[in-house]
Amino acid sequence: MKKHILSPGGELNGELRVVSDKSITHRALLLAALAQGESEITHPLLGDDLQSTIAALRFCGVLINEEEGRLYVHSDGVLHIPDNGVVNCGNSGTLMRIFCGVAVGANIAYRLIGDDSLMQRPMRRVAWPLCEMGAKVEVESSGKPPIVLEKHQGLRGIRHNLKTASAQVKSALLLAGLRAEGETTVEEPLPSRDHTELMLKSFGVVPKRDGALVSVQGGTPLNATGIKVPADISSAAFFMVGAAMTPGSDLTLTNVGINPTRFGAVEIIRRMGADVDVINVREYGNELVADIRVCGSELHGIDIEADLVPSAIDDFPALLIAAAAAIGKTTLSGATELRNKESDRIGAMVEGLLALGVECEERKDGIVVRGAGDKKNVFSGGKVQSRGDHRIAMAFSIAALRAADEIVVENCDNVSTSFPGFAAMAREVGLRIAVEED
Ligand code: S3P
To answer: With a 6 A CB cut-off, is 166 part of the ligand 1 pocket?
Structure first.
């Protein structure tokens, strides 16, 4: 198993285009599979999660070729899967949940499984509304995978009220809704990422938006198209935090997706006092991209409440490192959903922060961190368990910039699910990182 060995200190300087967006690449592949003809995906992320998606779609008869970093997806718009086939979603919750909606729309009988982490994640939230639409979807009595699908007699549109903001569930319902009779409407408690809605427009389908409601009309066909994938703001988040909390840093992250439903991390570090410039804002298909320049400055503790959680949902491991490097107390609340990610991210962050000498307290729905930003070194050295979670591993790697001693992050194999090449890129801009195999 890989571990990250980090020598303390350093600064982050220069220019970096981090890897492409995971959410957008997943959607580009899945929507291209539902469209008739050949779609071209430029700058896809080719991390392990996407390899799972590519394998799942090939299993359903979709032709996918990679040429010079682009993906060409050729489909007749219909998924063909051997009856009772098994699709392994690896570590990817996005694939398992969204693919569930896609496959229900295709009316195929199959079983979805995943790795140890994914087999522990809640799936009833997607299974129940799909059943309400007429699908036959079963999960374990605990609500966990495997997800077992059987053929159904047809789907009908529903109006579903999401209890928790979730772009994965919203996307699954909208994509199933495209193959249902009538209209399917999803109501969100807070806005979750809207990449599916934006990308559907590129494929010729325009979802209707009315405040918290988003609807699609059943029977609308998708037309193959070209999709360009921006750099992933959630991968950029580690570098934004690293530069913001380290005096002397001056780092520009280029071509980063700045979709407002993903922009929470920038808003949060700005509220903490970070020096962040968002420049060269431009359109990139139906998404927005920009270059983000971050310079080191003094950070202050803040209160982060539920309304900011969905737009920064994947960025809290990095943001809690910023909290530890800030002066004073940061309180995160309304974030219970973090316990349902690739690991229990509240538990994993509390454990790691305590191991590095940071004062913090676990709450059911969040965490309180008492930052020691007035000191040069806010983290001691030590050993941290990533719990096999890519974002926990990268967050604690960045902590080394303000550490007194060496940090070792264990179990880093899954970093390649979202950020293949993380260590090499981080080293290029100044992180003192080495990777060792156990
Ligand atoms: C994702 C949505 C979020 C996020 C995940 C990717 C997506 O999950 O945490 O990493 O691509 O739709 P939820 O839908 O569970 O909020």
So the answer is: yes
Nearest to 291 by CA among 1, 97, 18: 18
The answer to whether residues 118 and 143 touch, using CB atoms and an 8 Å cutoff, is no
Is 49 among the catalytic positions?
no
Nearest-angstrom CA–CA distance, 153 and 220: 19
Mean pLDDT of the 409-431 span = 98
30-81 confidence digits (pLDDT tens)? 999 999 999 999 999 999 999 999 999 999 999 999 999 999 999 999 998 7
Report which ligand 1 atom has the smallest distance to the Cα of 314: 9
User: Whose Cα sits closest to atom 11 in ligand 1?
Assistant: 23
Cβ atoms 338, 389 nearer than 8 A: no
Ligand 1 probe mutation, 52, 120, 166, most atoms within 8 A of CB: 166
d(CA 255, CA 304): 27
Residue 115 half-sphere exposure, CB side, CA atoms within 13 Å? 16
Q: Does residue 168's CB lie within 6 angstroms of at least one atom of ligand 1?
A: yes
pLDDT, one tens digit per residue, over 311-336 is: 999 999 999 999 999 999 999 999 99
DSSP 8-state secondary structure symbol assigned to residue 195:
H
Q: Which of 115, 314, 315, 389 is catalytic?
A: 314
d(CA 314, ligand 1 centre) in Å: 8
Whether the model clears a pTM of 0.85, i.e. scores above it, the answer is yes
Give 94 Cα–ligand 1 centroid separation in angstroms: 6
Contacting residues for 68 by C-beta, under 8 A, at least 6 apart: none
Q: What is the mean pLDDT of the chain?
A: 97
C-alpha to C-alpha distance for 396 and 324, rounded to whole angstroms: 11
Tell the residue nearest (CA) to atom 16 of ligand 1: 166
